[in-house]
Write a structure and sequence with these properties.
heterodimer, A: alpha/beta, Rossmann fold, 2 domains, 7-stranded parallel β-sheet, 9 helices, B: alpha/beta, binds flavin-adenine dinucleotide
Chain lengths: 315, 248
């Protein structure tokens, strides 16, 4: 019997898409129930979670301390909620939110944790990547302990909307620390572009793009194609684009239908982020670039010539 | 202040690992081993604090086999004053590692524990957070900038939405991300000096901690292979392939 609790990823009052992906992962456990815990200061995140198909119940904890997702503040609440209802599984998304929070939850519960579930083989057997995705291990967790894990969002489609779960206001007996305080957030201004983590098409650029100014041609092509924009670590380190655009082992792991990259060599750490992409297209001026070993379609050429030609051909 | 840094011996980031044919693990015979790159960033941070006069003492810690002394010697060459080697030939999972680090933290009473945000072998991304939880301390993960101010630290974190800055009371656990700094190249004189610095060796049993129940790895497999791709001649051919697949 599996009773699953999913910790919702809420940012600035809004439910993030990763939550619905964790719900899909939870369904693979053949659960008796899938509850979603929403910790927030106020807002509509709990109602949004109630609409996800397959959710049994939403537990909503509204308190001022929950305005920003600080792991030190959230973890005692997740632990209290997990104990209160004897959940067998506590899952979070493997976004920076879940990566920060879930190990803290596991340690407080005194159990090990499975990071980055990519497949569910049974209620206590999972597959996860190691070595930047260059190997996949099957892991068995003890059946007599609560299981804490994070879900690799790229491996699970988002559960559809259409549910109408009950929202229960939960009051928890949890003492919250004051030693960790939110100061500020810098989201680099809002953009109308699709979200990199969930976009169907992603266009990305690497060191070969050369400069922040040159990156405009990547943005322009992406806008033309309705794609999100990503980057390699080298492009981020060089200051061409902000850190939240990094794709790879230590950036975002994505699974778009189309991944098209320009001026990226294809280091294993970068490839770790795009292994699940549908079609990979690489444009690089060096025919020996390792990216061509994984690309479905490769084109040797100068990106500054190729992009204008592409824009023209795409009309 | 006193700073503790925990470092891990892992397969060098440039190595393309091979999965063993019988599915029992990854082939580590004769493979180049190094300090986890994120831990190098943590070491660099600690040593910069020493250079700036913020830190008086830097202690490097590792949990691992006898050979992990190489990584401790690197940490000492970076500029750590002394090192602690918790020796074990067993695979230590994050919760047990956290219990060991928490015990050492209680013994040494540093103001800050620095460690990499993840080790590039198991990619677990857990140990720092778990150690903070066990000690009931603040955690600041994925740090790309750290500013100390008396008994507090302001830490800028790399998160999915961009950057987030938080303030933590010290002592605290901070895990380091790629853009915090660029680790220095170790120079021969520093490597020579490191040979004379003290390493305190002990076993897991010496610390009297309870090992966590293990997650059991039953199989290791190569990742699913992608179909081999093709090279196209020009943009027109590329666009027609994309159209065939319904991608544009
Ligand atoms: C611990 C660790 C974690 C890491 N995590 C990540 C990660 O998450 N994501 C990540 O991406 N990297 C990561 N890296 C870095 C990774 O190893 C590579 O250094 C990085 O991916 C290289 O980026 P790049 O391909 O843009 O640059 P380069 O390797 O320098 O490649 C640039 C490419 O551009 C091509 N080029 C140049 N000019 C043109 C032109 N005009 N037209 C067409 N092509 C051109 C060149 O031929 C070259 O192939 C990590 C490294 C470490 C050590």
């Amino acid at each position: 019997m599996s009773k699953v609790l999913i910790v919702a990823d809420v940012f600035e009052g809004e439910l993030q898409g990763s939550t619905a992906r964790a719900v899909t992962c939870a369904q693979d456990l053949s659960p008796d129930s899938v509850d979603v815990l929403v910790l927030s200061a106020s807002g509509s995140a709990a109602e949004a979670a109630a609409k996800i198909e397959g959710v049994t119940k939403v537990l909503s904890v509204e308190r001022a301390e929950n305005e920003h997702p600080l792991a030190a503040t959230f973890a005692p609440q997740v632990v209290a909620a997990a104990k209160q209802n004897d959940y067998t599984h506590v899952l979070g998304p493997n976004t920076t939110f879940g990566k920060d929070l879930m190990p803290r939850v596991a340690a407080l519960l005194g159990v090990g944790m499975i990071t980055d579930i990519m497949a569910v083989n049974g209620p206590h057997e999972f597959e996860r990547p190691i070595y930047a995705g260059n190997a996949v291990v099957t892991v068995e967790a003890p059946g007599d302990q609560v299981l804490v894990a994070s879900v690799r969002c790229a491996s699970f489609d988002a559960a559809a909307d259409g549910g109408s779960a009950e929202v229960e206001a939960l009051s928890l007996d949890a003492e919250l620390p004051s030693h960790t305080r939110f100061v500020s957030a810098d989201t680099g201004g809002s953009s109308d572009r699709p979200d990199l983590a969930s976009a169907g098409k992603v266009i990305s650029g690497g060191r070969g793009v050369g400069s922040k100014e040159n990156f405009d041609i990547i943005f322009s092509l992406a806008d033309k194609m309705g794609a999100a924009v990503g980057a390699s670590r080298a492009a981020v380190d060089s200051g061409f684009v902000p850190n939240d655009m990094q794709v790879g082992q230590t950036g975002k792991i994505i699974a778009p239908e189309l991944y098209m990259c320009f001026g990226i060599s294809g280091a294993i750490q970068h490839l770790a982020g795009i292994k699940d992409a549908g079609t990979i297209i690489a444009i690089n001026k060096d025919e020996e670039a390792p990216i061509f070993e994984v690309a479905d379609y490769g084109l040797v050429g100068d990106l500054f010539k190729v992009i204008p030609e592409l824009e023209e051909a795409l009309g | 202040m006193k700073v503790m840094v925990s470092v891990k011996r892992v397969v060098d980031y440039n190595v393309r690992i091979q999965v063993k044919g019988d599915g029992s693990g990854v082939n580590l015979d004769g493979v180049k081993m190094s300090m986890n790159p994120f831990d190098e960033i943590a070491m660099e941070q600690a040593v910069q604090m020493k250079d700036a006069g913020t830190a008086e003492e830097v202690i490097a810690v590792t949990i691992g086999p006898a050979k992990a002394e190489e990584q401790l010697r690197s940490a000492l060459a970076f500029g750590a004053d002394r090192a602690i080697h918790v020796k074990t030939d067993e695979e230590i999972q994050p919760l047990t590692a956290a219990r060991i680090l928490a015990k050492l933290f209680e013994k040494e009473q540093p103001k800050v524990l620095l460690t990499g945000k993840q080790a590039i072998d198991d990619d677990a991304n857990q140990t720092g957070q778990m150690t903070a939880a066990l000690l009931d301390l603040p955690q600041a993960t994925f740090a790309s900038a750290i500013e100390f101010d008396g008994d507090k630290a302001k830490v800028t974190r790399e998160v999915d939405s961009g950057l987030e800055t938080i303030e933590v009371d010290l002592p605290a656990v901070i895990t380091t991300d790629l853009r915090l700094n660029e680790p220095r190249y170790l120079k021969l004189p520093d490597i020579m000096k490191a040979k004379k610095k003290p390493i305190d060796a002990m076993s897991v049993e010496d610390l009297g901690i309870e090992e966590a129940v293990k997650l059991n790895v039953t199989k290791t497999a190569p990742p699913p292979e992608r179909e081999p791709g093709v090279m196209v001649e020009d943009v027109n051919e590329l666009v027609s392939k994309m159209k065939d697949k319904g991608l544009v």
